[in-house]
Amino acid sequence: MTDYEKLANLIFPDINLTIDDLEKRYPKRDLKEGAIVDRFAPSPTGFLHSGSLFTALVGYKFALQTGGVFMLRLEDTDTKREIEGSGEKLLTEMKEFGVVPMEGYFGTYEEGSYGPYCQSDRALIYNTVIKDMIRRGLAYPCFCSHEDLDALRKTQEEKKENPGYYGEYAKCSHLIPSEAIKKIENGESYIIRFRSTGNHLNKIHVHDLIKGDLDLSENDQHIVILKSDGLPTYHFAHLCDDHFMRTTIVMRGEEWLSSLPIHYELFNTLGFELPKYAHLPVIMKQDNGKRRKLSKRLDQEAAVSYFLERGYSRDAIVEYLFTLANSNFEEWRLSHMNDNIYDFDFSFEKFNVDGALFDLDKINDISKERLSRLSKEEFTVKALEYANKYDHNLKDLIERDRDYFMSIINIEREKENPRKDYVKFEDVFDFIKFFYKDYYDEILSNGLEFNEKFNKGKIKEVLLTHLCSLDLTQDEQTWFQTMKDTMESLGFAPNKKELRDNPNKYIGTIGDASEIIRVALTGRKSSPNLYYVEKILTNSEIRRRFENVIK
RNA sequence: GGCUCAAUGGAGAAGCGGUUAACUCACUGCCCUCUCAAGGCAGCAUUCAUGGGUUCGAAUCCCGUUUGAGCUACCA
Hints:
Blueprint: H1 3-11, H2 19-25, E1 37-40, H3 50-66, E2 69-72, H4 86-96, E3 103-105, E4 110-111, H5 123-135, E5 139-142, H6 146-158, H7 177-185, E6 191-194, E7 203-208, E8 212-217, E9 224-226, H8 234-244, E10 249-253, H9 260-270, E11 276-280, E12 284-287, E13 290-293, H10 305-310, H11 314-325, H12 329-334, H13 360-372, H14 376-390, H15 392-400, H16 402-409, H17 428-432, H18 437-445, H19 456-469, H20 476-489, E14 492-493, H21 496-501, E15 508-509, H22 510-522, H23 530-550
Parallel strand pairs: 1-2, 2-3, 10-11, 14-15
Antiparallel strand pairs: 3-4, 5-6, 6-9, 7-8, 12-13
Helix pairs in contact: 1-5, 1-7, 8-9, 11-13, 14-15, 14-16, 15-16, 19-20, 19-22, 19-23, 22-23
This protein binds one RNA strand through helix 6, strand 8, strand 13, helix 12 and helix 13.
């Protein structure tokens, strides 16, 4: 037995597996040509970030359209930052947006034969690989303390050299196995580092599916692969997991680009086939004229829950993310307005290389559009679903009388270009509450704002005249004609042109008369089409409201 | 500081050596209209961060500058 083997056995006495065993246990996937296997690998440190949803969505879509596999792997190796229960929260939020993994971690259970899918459960795999690496001299225990490392950094900074644990500075890499064994037997604490043979003066050539061809400096850092808590670091977990889970394309945020040389060397020294990489642009935010990464701490909209709580159309959020992913999507969308957006195929070529600013205006527009294209039944189901969780006032209105609610939100909905009154379900309650007696009475008690041009007598006259001539069995055309006729007798011109031509004959236009009726009925200067409002309110309620206003 | 990537209107962008520099959102004006929403029309980059070069010809290719972003942990 060599000294390296002794060292490996001392550190991992219970590991009997070999890399070969793992290769057999996790065989290559039998998928059709071009099928993409990718993964979403969040760490359970909080809620789902809008940028993470983007990454997950892109991975999901690619797997879907190529007949591949999209899996969820939980990167729970940072025990300090872990937030209890956030893994499941992440998953439910993804589901809200229709992003459902085909394999992996599902909160209370796992699915798939490449697991476990929580990194904290994969110690056997990591340890097996590391034991083999130590045996072959590719990894070694490092006994340096945090203080040693800080001191090292300081001297490197003074000498203006690259900071880090590498080359001559990698003190523990020079320890021969017998010395390391002695230290361990003395009870010194250690972590495991990777023995890099790279030189940062050399260049490696890599191809990124989105960024294109890149020349990067070779890695020379002896990175930590196993921390003192026994858990692997991201880099090492990435190596083992994506190799043994047979990931074909690693899709991740571009903040990972600079650690690609590490991964490149890791895969090469283990003789594992390097996966393809696609580094996605990061979503940015304008802040005081500067752009920066969308931040969970600073920006509310960075958390996906922002959109859920306000009742945005979830389809619209997905659709917006599609526009960020592929620049030609919007154009496609214009000619496929009523199709499923998943019919559109993503391509890596159409990805933008740099991060886009998060555009709430655009999201609002898309959400408004999506909500307007829902049938009244769909709208109501979704509104209630939202209201149940976030909006008790709205919930109450819907449950009082579902048909009444539907007739309100259906005003000018069933036509080619429907009204776009609501950006999000949060807007609905305020917009429609005047239809309900109790809320109307509340509005009335706060006072109505009529046009000051007209005195109380005139207002009363308009309301009474309108009420007398009102016949809601008429169609819209006739109804409006009746209104024009009756209002003309009170001095309101039937259109602006008439008023312009005969300024002395009229005191206003039909628009002014309508405003009086509108304010009396709704408490507002703008509302949907008065004809439909009146049809929904019915004669008796219109009479009641007018009488109260006149009082 | 070092390394890497990027730069087309307020935002997302098309553009791949010859275009009046598409399109979407936002914005502005007009029209339509009972208000709003919707819709229609028009406007919104004589110029693609900047300076140089290559070329008959450059937003497109090359170099420098500037600006921005990301990384530079026993975090992911």
